[in-house]
Automatic annotation (TrEMBL):
Amino-acid biosynthesis found in the keyword field: yes
Quaternary data: Homodimer.
Annotated source species: Pseudoxanthomonas winnipegensis
Name recorded for this polypeptide: Shikimate dehydrogenase (NADP(+))
Enzymatic reactions: shikimate + NADP(+) = 3-dehydroshikimate + NADPH + H(+)
Function noted in UniProt: Involved in the biosynthesis of the chorismate, which leads to the biosynthesis of aromatic amino acids. Catalyzes the reversible NADPH linked reduction of 3-dehydroshikimate (DHSA) to yield shikimate (SA).
Length: 279
């Protein structure tokens, strides 16, 4: 029985153990996958302890993806560009890090939702670990322009610098959102819905007739952003459930060399989390 885990904050409700159990059943692989709560700053020690208990690989979620990057001795090219790691594999006693978030998002949008990302002007809200994972993949998928806006502007600037394509990927201030034009794609990569505080307040001026709204979050956390997209009258509204399944499939392949069939697992999870209604 090989051992895997998800490290994050408040991971008790995460569907990831259910997803990986379903993939393992499909592939006929005996594996354990559990969620483990870790406080900020405690990830390196938690990874060491897990490896000592026989852990072979891990996923990392909010807020540890940049700490996971620092904990790895070897990195994939996409993890290096992102500066964030969501998938770790133990290799000769050391952690190898990859980032499957971007591939997961693009596969969900272009495959399951048949969205053509090429030529789109896209707004990325957030510059944390998830935004750092998806930004390079969005550029690779052909978005024309990527405008990054984050509550703390220095994190947005650092992400734009890491992307290294100043002509295509650049930043604006959150306070200026009402005046930065409209977008064919608005992506919420913030964790704002997790806070007890005020929900995101976004201007409808960001939208045009073509705009698709994508929330990396799903379930209750996604409600405020998806409600905003419905109120704006958008026709394409996507939550993060499909991305969750697709990024997990990428991780599973990194660990086991087998590509799982994601559709039945997505359908199962969707039963408990209805599709975001479109206008
Ligand atoms: P991080 O903690 O690394 O980053 C959080 C981001 O949200 C930062 O940009 C932060 O801004 C911003 N933020 C937090 N609160 C607010 C607020 N009230 N108003 C505006 N911005 C805010 O988290 P991650 O990037 O790892 O994850 C972000 C979200 O994406 C999470 O909720 C996570 O569950 C989801 N996610 C979903 C995935 C999926 O597969 N569906 C995969 C990965 C993530 P600042 O820098 O100013 O603090």
């Amino acid at each position: 029985m090989s051992r895997y885990a998800l490290f994050g904050r408040s991971v008790a409700k995460s569907p990831s153990p259910q997803i990986h159990a379903a993939f393992a059943r499909q592939a006929g692989i005996a594996m354990e996958y559990v969620g483990l709560d870790v406080e900020p700053g405690a990830l390196p020690a938690a990874l060491d302890a897990f490896a000592a208990r026989g852990g072979r690989g891990a996923n990392v979620t909010v807020p540890h993806k940049q700490a996971a990057f620092a904990a790895c001795t070897r990195l994939s090219a996409r993890a290096r560009t992102a500066g964030a790691v969501n998938t770790l594999r133990l290799e000769e006693g050391q952690w190898y890090g990859d980032n499957t978030d971007g591939a997961g998002l693009v596969r969900d949008l272009t495959g399951r939702h048949s969205l053509d990302l090429r030529g789109r002007r896209a707004l990325l809200l957030g510059a944390g670990g998830a935004a750092r994972g998806v930004a390079p993949a969005l550029l690779e998928a052909g978005v024309r322009e990527l405008v990054i806006v984050n509550r703390s502007p220095e994190r947005a600037d650092a992400l734009a610098d890491a992307l290294g394509e100043p002509g295509r990927a650049h930043t604006r201030y959150w306070e200026d959102l009402a005046g930065i034009g409209d977008f064919e794609l608005v992506i919420n990569a913030t964790s704002a819905g997790r806070d007890a505080g005020a929900p995101l307040s976004l201007p409808f001026a960001l939208c045009n007739d073509m705009t698709g709204a994508v929330d990396l979050n799903y379930g209750e956390v996604a409600i405020p952003f998806l409600a905003w997209a419905r109120a704006a009258g958008l026709r394409t509204i996507v939550d993060g459930l499909g991305m969750l399944v697709e990024q997990a499939a990428e991780s599973f392949e990194i660990w086991h060399g087998v590509r799982p069939d994601t559709d039945p697992v997505y359908a199962l999870l969707r039963e408990g989390a209805p599709e975001p209604a479109t206008a």
